[in-house]
Specification:
alpha+beta; Porin; twelve-stranded antiparallel beta barrel; about 20% helix; elongated
Length: about 280
């Protein structure tokens, strides 16, 4: 009889304890749901308040300067300058991107090229922008006296957070290249005009508060000749040393598929730089 009473008491206690645990879990789940709702409402309110702030219309400047010189058994000098200027007003935006490289060895020029691209954008939504790009590149060591292109495109913000960002661009272009006798010996210098397209991706990753990784990758090709294409890649790792100055390293790959005999298709550059951004 005593055993039965103990078993009944134990069972009853277990049921009561289970009921209390279940009630605690239900209350905890309700508190979590309420907290999530409050956070969502606070985030929405914050975005609405931030949208009422005047837009920052200052020019965003980012300039990187790299330089290396050696003497003794070999006298070499390498110089690089690249960066951008960007400005936004209303739904409009404009930017100038540039990249210049110069090098010599034993007083003989081994690298001399520069690139400039202008872009105008109009923001349709929070992540989709229509743009117009104009580009110019001068690099005689790549078999081209110059290359130009112009055309419309779209830019999509595929990823945007405090830690990382990814923009994808696609453009339809009219291209004009001044070639240095690649195809016709009778015409050592002539201009080729053609329709082309360009795909571009820009990725940013904040690894740490003061350490950032940037990757740019672009591909431009002719509609008529699939073998006439250009690839550019730039990988950067930089660390902030003050509010406006950063130091880092960059590795660039500039690939041209159509080149004259004796000229390499790929031009690689590894450089250390000092960056100014404000």
């Amino acid at each position: 009889m005593i055993k039965k009473i103990l078993l009944i008491s134990l069972a009853t206690s277990s049921l009561l304890l289970a009921s209390e645990v279940t009630q605690d879990q239900v209350k905890l789940q309700a508190d979590i749901t309420a907290a999530k709702a409050e956070k969502s409402a606070a985030d929405s309110k914050l975005k609405a308040l931030e949208a009422q702030l005047p837009q920052d219309q200052s020019i965003k400047t980012n300039v990187k300067l790299g330089y290396m010189k050696t003497d003794g058994n070999t006298d070499t000098e390498t110089f690089s300058l690249d960066g951008s200027f960007k400005k936004a007003w209303g739904k409009n935006s404009g930017s100038i991107t540039f990249d210049a490289q110069y090098g010599n060895a034993e007083n003989v020029v081994t690298k001399n090229k520069y690139f400039v691209e202008l872009e105008y954008g109009y923001l349709f939504t929070g992540s989709l922008t229509a743009n117009m790009v104009v580009g110019y590149k001068n690099d005689k060591f790549s078999s081209y006296s110059y290359q130009t292109y112009v055309g419309p495109g779209i830019k999509y913000g595929a990823l945007s957070s405090s830690r990382q960002k990814l923009d994808i661009e696609a453009s339809l272009l009219y291209s004009s290249d001044n070639l240095q006798g690649q195809y016709e010996a009778a015409q050592p210098d002539f201009v080729e005009n053609y329709g082309s397209y360009k795909a571009k991706a820009l990725y940013e990753l904040n690894i740490l508060d003061n350490l950032k990784f940037n990757q740019e990758l672009s591909y431009r090709a002719s509609f008529d000749d699939s073998q006439n294409y250009f690839i550019f890649s730039k990988s950067e790792l930089s660390s902030k040393i003050s509010d406006i100055f950063s130091a880092g390293v960059a590795y660039k790959i500039d690939y041209t598929n159509h080149v004259s005999t004796g000229i390499k298709k790929r031009d690689n550059t590894l450089s250390a730089f000092l960056s100014l951004a404000y």
